Amino acid sequence: MTAAGPAGARRPAFRIEPYVQFAQKAMAREATYRFDVFTNVASVLVRVYLLRMVWVALYARNAAPSELPLHAIITYSAVALLMGLVMDIDQTRLLHDKLHDGSIATDFMKPIIVPLYLFADGGGEVLFHAALIVPSLLLALFIVHIDVPGPFVLAVFFLSCVLGYFVGFFVNFIVNMIAFWTLEIHAARLIVTWITDLFGGEIIPLVIFPPLLQTIAFALPFAAMFSTPLLIYVGVVKPDRYLEVIGLQVLWLAVLAAVAAVMWRAGARRVVVQGG
Amino acid sequence: MTAMRRARVMAGVYRQYWRINLLTTLEYRENFLVWFAFTFVYHGSAIAALWIVLNRFPSMNGWTFRDMAFLYGLWMLAHALHNTLFSTVGDIPDHIRDGEFDRLLVRPLDTLFQAIATPGQVFPDELILALVTFGVATWFSGVHVGLVFVVFVPLIVLGGALIDLAFNLFISTVAFWFVRVDALRWIVIQLEQEFTRYPISIYSRGVRLILTFAIPFAFMNYFPARYFLHKAHEGAALPPAVGLLTPAIGVVAVALAYVFWRFGLNRYSGVGH
User: Fold this and answer.
1) Is ipTM > 0.95 here?
2) Of B41, B56, B202, the CB nearest to A194
């Protein structure tokens, strides 16, 4: 979207600095809510403990699934919760707030690319929370043992995580853009959150779903957010399937990005038509 | 005499409170439907998650999906009763922050009562859903519906709702000192949600003691469910009949929270508007 062409007298050339500034401002803003930081880390630790006890209790009395021994499923849950610190952030929530109070109109007048501005603002928040993973991980190691795969698997896992993050970004962006039409979307957002939690494999690995539900879950975009990187991490998805699962993530990313682009154009026009 | 009069005034205010709630709900119908869909998905996905796990692992410390459905239904009913009657208590910190709360202080009715009866968009949809869920779960789990059940379950549900209220009120009282309490509320909501879902016998001794004596979520559903499902062998330190103590625990918890509330209210001097 570099619209700085010959007609760029009124449209200045694209510069990245303002967006870096937006991200830095968002980071500083997040850092002021110190108690929330503490809450986030504490809540992850409580859930790591809880899920460990749940899986221990379940594996103690039942036959374990061959592909996921106890240590693998505990690793899965712990890594999922740490990923959640970043993945669960609704990066474009700002859009909803701005549509609500009308300040989106002035943003459209500024010489910025509004979606990129939203992305940068949320990006600061994401980077700040990504930093929380380190202390959370160190503290979690007191509660559980986390398996660590080899460097190649780890590298593919990180790649898959980044793709999963962007899939999640577009899912949230699409939900927030509903606010162009209805304004009140708090409930819709929560519904998507709960569905993502379940069908994304954040709490329960999709491979232990019953067959039919498993087929459905793997066919939904939510699986690309949590399940794909996590199954790579614990080795349920073997290297010979990497191309297939990563390719599917890229496909979902492309589809959701296209939907988001169409919605944005229609939504932005609405704002202009309504007179801002 | 004055007590009688005041009770009549309060009953009138409370009736108006519900009238406004229902009218508001009727006015914003789409909004209501979306929130109802959320309530449905929230409880539906929780029960689905239990079913998926227990479909693959049929027993959790001797509890089957049928038992867990009853455990969940009991919690859901108490929680929904609280949300229907007392969710407004959770708005107190917002009122303190924007100064609205100070208006309640100068009116001639009990402050807490006024806070509870501040109209919003409350509708007993979650409660209705919870009653249906609990009914199905009771039938499904094969719990014997005898005299003890009929007499005690309503009391236990009320007691569970009071335990919820005690925490809600406690957190709102903290707002007299620390204006922002969203994070604290989030922690407690999450703890309650996680620690009422499974039988507490799966946790270590320390956590079980905390859930029994310090933050008694185990009395909302685990102990009563253990009694009705005859799972007496578990947590053998306490006899099964402690499951019937929930109403008393609820009253004590709310009394403690109320004392703390009065203490905070007497020291409150506004946030500087």
Assistant:
1) no
2) B41
